[in-house]
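Objective 1.3, modelling of assemblies. Example input:
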Amino acid sequence: MLLPFLLALHAVTAVLLPWLVRVAGPRAFLLACLPPAATVVWVLSRAPEIVAGRPATSSIAWVPALGIDLDFRVDALALAMVLLVSGVGAVIFGYCARYFHTGERGIGRLAAVLVLFAGAMLGVVSTDNLFALFVFWELTSITSFLLIGNDDRKEQARRAATQALITTAGFGLPMLVGFILLGEIGGSYRISELVAAPPTASPWLPVALVLILAGAFAKSAQVPLHYWLPGAMVAPTPVSAYLHAAAMVKGGVYLIARLAPGFADVDPWRALVLTFGLATMLIGGWRALRQDDLKLLLAYGTVSQLGFLTLLAGAGTQVAAVAAIGALLAHGFFKSALFLTVGVIDHQAGTRSIGALSGLGRRMPVLAAAAALAAASMAGVPPMLGFVVKEAALEAFLPGHAAGMPPGAAAAVLTGVLLASILTFAYSARFVWGAFADKAAVSERRFPHPSAAFVAAPVSLAAVSLATGALAFLLDPLAQSYAAPFDAGGQPYHLALWHGPTPALGLSALVIAVGVLLFYRREGVARIQRAMPRWPDAETGYHLFVHATYAFALGVTRRLQSGSLPVYLGVILAMLLALPGARLVVVLVTGDVAAPGAGEGFRVWNSPLEGVVALLIVVTAVATVREHRRFPALILISAMGFGIAGLFALYGAPDLALTLVLVETLTTVILVFVLRRLPATFGTRPNGWGKRLTVLLCAATGTFIAVSLWLMTAARTDAPVSLGYAPRAHEAGGDNLVNLILADFRALDTFGEVVVLATAAIAVASLVLLNRRARVVEESGADPLEEEGAAGSDGEGDPAAGNGLAAGAGGTGADSGPAGEGDRS
Amino acid sequence: MNIDGERQRESRGPEGSGGAPPEGWEAPRERWLSTVVRPAFGPRSVLLEVAARLLIPAILVLSVFLLVSGHDKPGGGFAGGLVASMAYVLRYVAGGRHELAAGMPTRPERVLALGMLVACGTAVLPLLFGAPLLKTFSYEAALPVFGDVKFASFLVFEIGVFLIVVGLVLSVVSALGARMEAEEEEAKAGRERARRLRRTGGGPR
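Predicted structure (tokens):
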């Protein structure tokens, strides 16, 4: 099977695109069409087999031990999604070549991420493994974050991108937990196996399903998590058309449709899907009616349609499943056509506000006709695909026809769907009127005529909506293939333009009639909307949550990171005394440990010289504590360090002694650099209780260390590891054991340590230099060293974050160095 | 602790007043270092400059010796790196930041990066030949002049450590020492500019 290669082709194209865009400009998008177009060709060539019930599969082992494999399986549902993701994707990439200008900022990145997104989405819909699905799923979240925030100089774009990422990826985590639960109780991570044999006996199954639905609802912008989708409209219009109409937001619907054949009858599933889907449909439609920005109108329309799709995909009946496949395709075609239309209008006229557009229908008749067709499909007007689908949807919830649902619930859902369809008709009409009608109160704008190739994309998508509607029987085998697992009660429903005079047809006519009325009374509707009390906004909830998180983090940080080194040291020492120290006291009291006394290998010193050095250390330590001036205190501390190096030398550890001497010397010199900036004496020293506490803490810690060392020397139960080193040293090619341990036996430790060293070097340099960044940029070229520093510290980061760090560096800079000796109490 | 270097240079001269030695009496008349010397601390000192000139090559040689001798005797990459960076610190203390910049082979970040590259390379290279991570090999050969020479592949790893230590110290010195000094000079220049403006009776309002 070719699919893994097609995925790899997406990745390779994404890598090449930034370079290609630099060379060829936006025309490089035409090359970006290739991977999705190839995918469509491949999937169509396999379509007859897939529809006949023989899915195309392949598998690549990834982490077989954990059941994580790249399994791919393209069945009827996946085929529909691939057509949507790759087919619409190819059209939109072609459109991008005209939409973007040569030399616009960041197109190379945009193109690469867009193709990467197409690949990730293809992975989501074609994989058969829960973990692989999750990985692709989060890849789409991340690429969507990058695409929404493409104009990274706009704060609004950055905020919308973060909002979308936090919502979709944040709810992806419970979904992962749900996946793992489902895989563990089902005994397999292959979706096809889980759906074929659902573990209905397990009490954990409802929990897993609720968690998975949470992730799917966030991805598909269901109320109350819908707020990110209108916010995401700051992205360039082709991106909105692709991600937020055709592909990404369908991810959640896809997952629901994927799991529905197995799990729709498990208890909270149907209630959740129907409730949230219905609420989303109504709220989205209602809010779409009052938008002035055409793109926002479409965004709320998308929210409404996603509710509709969720409803159909999750309902779990044969008719609903047939309708779901049709609705997935219909929505992808008409909504991307409409978004692309808005893109053309915005690109040519420079605005997309209903209140500023007039007479566009006369200027761009072809575009207006295409948009009218697409809107008709959205509104459910025959002979568009949208109509065919809406018929099927109404049929699915007619009381008595809906198998497996109580008549009361079916009637409630049907009423909801009818209301939402009326709203949909009204806002579709409002879209066409707002974009293309002559408005008496608005003056016409002059703008250049769009090129034929630019308009071709929306026109072709609208034509597909028309063609698939008129020839709906072509899509029927696909829908039947997906809906086959559901019980049809002997008479399966078929997608077709004409079913005869059915109740659903009557309802469709009713929807259109009331919708037309609603459109003509639009001023009255607007008055009602204005008069409505403002409901608690879901977005406010998001902001409250984010603010609460920040406030909590700040509060915790402020308490834990007081900025005073003595306090930090005090906390560490207190913890040392509280945990191991307390244990040591317990051990001493109960007598579990034998304290080595004289005659059991315990002696005061090996040679009296050690006593002399120890005396030197004690004297310098006491003198350090009593010294009030910084510089002498530093020298005394260094002397103490040299004393310890002397002890090492006396014990026969020349390597340790050498390294310690060198480190002490360097530290002293570097501290002297810092001392230049600090006052000559310690400003405040602890007094009274502070002093007593400090003395007590330090004395206790010192005693603890001494006693534990004394006990540990006698506590050995096994032979030391180092005995094995000596015989192996020669084999490794050296005689210096210390060095061999560092560079050979424990080289991985050393490697980790040098990585820490390098990180510390970069951190120190950037912390010291950051607050100078602004000035360094001003005075560039002043002298060579300056420039080096500037280049070293000039990161790619967000300027706001940079300032924050600089402030932090300013705060801690004063404390770095010898302030630990009691600079603040 | 900040002693004005420029004042020192201007008032340099043999004649002194009173019993105290004249200002700048320690300053050398010959050129010992490679740039116009403005030490990091205090006045110029002939002792310091001569010592730096004579000692720095010896210290660098010692650092390489420590690096190579680490197989069998005390030393190794870490100690060698510390010694080598000490040579640069001495150069900075004696000659100031321009002297340090003149003496550095390249930017400290590059030294760090090179060290990381060498260390990572020796860590990963054995994997390509089917050996475990960080596996070492050693060879002994009898060369005509040098006698028996031993080469162990962990020497390469040690070179990486050496470079990382040098890079670390250099970047800390140029951040904490040289950078602060530059800031002080800048502040002084600002003050002088302000004074000049006041003297000429106004500036851009």
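The radius of gyration of chain A is 35 Å.
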